[in-house]
């Protein structure tokens, strides 16, 4: 730790300092360690509460047990992988803390005295910091100034050629410009190899200039070695540029031991599937214990070196390169069976198709390792609907001083869950629909909402009243029998029936508006239809809107919003692809931000006006929290826009004098819905101002 002062290391080791914040000269400006000012116990509790909060968004997850966060043995000099941004004046560091007005969050802060970098990483970073000004000037002098060196990825390896001293792989992340700068980058790479004995290889990575990810999709060797060996825990494995690796070597080894512990009781030679296997750290450790391992990953170079390594060591590892959803679907078609499945996806979590395929695979146990509580709990909620349940979460402090937390969830096969009931009468039931579960049978999905409704007592012959399309969540109505459903279908065909949606539309919409367009449905019927919307709040430059649609087919309202230039975020068909991609990668939105929050109709049983509400889905709440914080929910609650379970969003005062307000009980501990004998036509506006 030569880059740290002797005073710091001695005082920190003795406990004289409360924590790194006492000595970090970059703490006031650098965003890299947001929890640096907290005590160690406060940092761990902060991370645990992140997991608790994420799980609490989903009703079915309320009973989960979240264990205390397992602390890291070291909080300084631990980071063996660092992606450092390059500033316009050759700064090498991380983005600055944003100002109070939200500006400045993409200003690069130089961090020459960073406390968390491992010594080898810090040493190479210092060398690069001294060399960058001259290199960037050379790029400009050579007429290639439009090339941008945007970041540098540094990766420590500890098993190179059997040497005890760590070495470093360097990746230069660039955005290509005009001219040919290849000779300059090769020259810089060779100079770096000659000038720093810790560097053993330099590569170039091409970024598209758009993706929020630091690394782009293509990497090529410039100088030195293309791959070497590294070690974490029990596994010595091949390491190459761009391949995924955890940043804390000691804590990663601890997690590896925990995962290996889940193989206890498996027979020798049992088949194990390792999805998002990266460089094969876990696959090698499993294969060394005699298990047959199939590893899936999309990063071809890492799998190629893993395959060569496994052949050389005679390890029973099969590598499958490709998109996880496509590979898993192929395994399902081949009726492959595994006694254990391990998944460790990137921050954006599991794609919905991956979750479907995992549910269809023949396996009794799934272990999910996640670096993001929001995407983890979103995925676990969907997997529970597919028959894979978890009861506890085990968080680990894998990146100390940040608010990041690694979590392990263990899932087992269980019977399908009953749907969450909003309201129930003698002839129908209203239930919540998840975005990724179809209302009725589908050839591409493992289950459907109708099947779960028919598991309920008294609903064996249930039939859906309308079909809420895949990708959309909210309230769905089922009749107890086909005859009951027909009566409700007729009620929903009435002109006074309304469906009220909450959506996040791209950009800043007008405060309110009405869209008249020719409508062509999915089955060919057409006509003039109307969609009304009102902006409720602004979140990160986008508009949270309430939408009232005249027809049940959501294609119409999606096209209507897109025709304004304000497509619904997450809409792959009518929306804005770059915005959708950004929200998927940064804010965990893996579907349409569209939720059927309220149904207004006249009951065929009583003739009364019903207001049926479905609370905003947990995954959409998570997206809003990420982009706007908790304050937005206070705003939306004040506008009766969140869908309060069991009650109408029509303010009680608006119902006074409108007749009796009977309630419809639900079986068990029932929430309620308000009914009202309001006039069928109230001038196109509801009491809450639609």
Task: Describe the secondary structure blueprint for this structure.
Blueprint (H helix, E strand, L loop, with lengths): L5 H9 L25 H16 L9 E2 L14 E6 L5 E4 L12 E3 L8 H23 L6 E10 L9 E9 L6 H14 L3 E9 L10 E7 L2 E6 L2 E6 L8 H13 L9 E5 L5 H8 L3 E6 L2 H14 L3 E5 L2 H10 L6 E4 L8 H9 L4 E6 L2 H13 L2 E9 L9 E8 L7 E4 L3 E6 L15 H5 L9 E2 L8 E7 L2 H11 L5 E8 L6 E9 L5 E14 L2 E8 L4 H10 L13 H11 L6 E9 L6 E5 L4 H11 L2 H8 L13 H4 L19 E2 L14
Parallel strand pairs: 1-16, 6-7, 11-12, 11-14, 12-13, 14-15, 21-26
Antiparallel strand pairs: 2-3, 2-5, 3-4, 5-6, 7-8, 9-10, 15-17, 16-17, 18-19, 19-21, 20-21, 22-25, 22-26, 23-24, 24-25, 26-27, 27-28
Structural class by helix and strand composition: alpha+beta
Determine Rg (CA atoms, Å): 28 Å
CATH class call of the largest domain: Alpha Beta
Architecture (CATH level 2) name of the largest domain: 2-Layer Sandwich
How many discrete domains? 3
Which homologous superfamily in CATH is the superfamily of the largest domain? Pseudouridine synthase
What is the molecular shape?
Answer: globular
Distance between the termini: 63 Å
């Amino acid at each position: 730790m030569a880059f740290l002062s002797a005073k710091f290391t001695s005082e920190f080791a003795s406990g004289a300092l409360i924590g790194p914040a006492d000595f970090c000269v970059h703490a006031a400006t650098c965003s890299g360690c947001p929890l640096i000012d907290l005590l160690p116990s406060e940092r761990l509790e902060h991370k645990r509460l992140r997991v608790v909060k994420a799980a609490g968004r989903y009703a079915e997850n309320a009973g989960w047990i979240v264990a205390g966060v397992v602390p890291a043995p070291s909080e300084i000099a631990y980071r063996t992988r660092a992606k450092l941004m390059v500033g316009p004046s050759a700064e090498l560091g991380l983005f600055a803390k944003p100002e109070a007005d939200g500006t400045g969050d993409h200003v690069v802060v130089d961090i020459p005295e960073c406390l968390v970098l491992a010594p080898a990483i810090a040493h190479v970073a210092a060398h690069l910091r001294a060399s960058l000004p001259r290199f960037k000037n050379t790029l400009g002098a050579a007429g290639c100034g439009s090339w941008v060196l945007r970041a540098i990825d540094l990766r420590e390896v500890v098993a190179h050629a059997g040497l005890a001293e760590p070495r470093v792989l360097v990746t230069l992340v660039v955005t290509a410009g005009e001219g040919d700068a290849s000779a300059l980058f090769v020259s810089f790479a060779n100079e770096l190899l000659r000038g720093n004995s810790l560097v053993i290889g330099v590569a170039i990575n091409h970024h598209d200039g758009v993706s929020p990810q630091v690394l782009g999709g293509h990497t090529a060797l410039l100088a030195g070695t293309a791959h070497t060996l590294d070690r974490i825990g029990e596994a010595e494995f091949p390491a190459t540029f761009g391949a995924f690796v955890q940043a804390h070597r000691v804590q990663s080894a601890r997690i590896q031991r925990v995962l290996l512990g889940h193989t206890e009781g498996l027979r020798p030679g049992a088949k194990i599937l390792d999805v998002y296997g990266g460089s094969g750290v876990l696959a090698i450790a499993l294969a060394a214990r005699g298990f047959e391992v199939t590893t899936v990953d999309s990063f071809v170079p890492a799998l190629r070196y893993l395959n060569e390594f496994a052949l050389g060591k005679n390890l029973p590892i099969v590598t499958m390169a490709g998109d996880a959803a496509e590979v898993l679907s192929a395994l399902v078609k081949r009726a492959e069976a595994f006694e254990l499945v391990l998944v460790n996806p990137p921050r954006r979590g599991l794609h919905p198709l991956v979750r479907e395929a995992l549910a269809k695979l023949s396996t009794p146990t799934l272990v999910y390792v996640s670096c993001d509580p929001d995407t983890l709990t979103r995925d676990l909620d969907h997997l529970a609907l597919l028959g894979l349940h978890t009861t506890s979460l085990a968080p680990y402090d894998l990146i100390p001083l940040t608010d990041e937390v690694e979590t392990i969830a263990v899932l087992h096969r269980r019977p399908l869950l009953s749907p969450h009931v909003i309201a129930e009468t003698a002839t129908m039931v209203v239930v919540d629909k998840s975005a990724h579960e179809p209302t009725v049978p589908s050839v591409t999905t493992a289950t459907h909402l109708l099947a779960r409704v028919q598991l309920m007592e008294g609903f064996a012959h249930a039939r859906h009243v309308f079909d809420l399309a895949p990708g959309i969540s909210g309230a769905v109505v089922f009749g107890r029998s086909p005859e009951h459903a027909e009566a409700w279908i007729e009620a929903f065909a009435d002109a006074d029936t309304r469906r009220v949606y909450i959506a996040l539309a791209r950009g800043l919409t007008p405060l309110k508006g009405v869209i008249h367009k020719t409508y062509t449905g999915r089955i060919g019927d057409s006509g003039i239809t109307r969609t009304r919307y009102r902006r409720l709040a602004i979140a990160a430059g986008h508009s949270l809107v309430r939408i009232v649609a005249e027809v049940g087919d959501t294609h119409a309202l999606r096209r209507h919003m897109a025709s304004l230039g304000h497509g619904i975020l997450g809409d792959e068909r009518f929306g804005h692809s770059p915005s959708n991609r950004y929200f998927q990668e940064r804010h965990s939105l893996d579907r349409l931000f569209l939720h059927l929050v309220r149904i207004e109709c006249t009951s065929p049983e009583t003739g009364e006006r019903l207001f049926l509400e479905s609370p905003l889905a947990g995954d959409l709440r998570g997206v809003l929290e990420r982009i706007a914080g908790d304050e937005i929910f206070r705003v939306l609650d004040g506008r009766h826009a969140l869908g309060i379970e069991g009650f109408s969003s029509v303010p009680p005062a608006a119902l006074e004098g409108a007749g009796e307000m009977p309630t419809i009980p639900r079986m068990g501990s029932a929430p309620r819905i308000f009914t009202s004998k309001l006039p069928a036509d109230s001038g196109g506006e509801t009491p809450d101002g639609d």
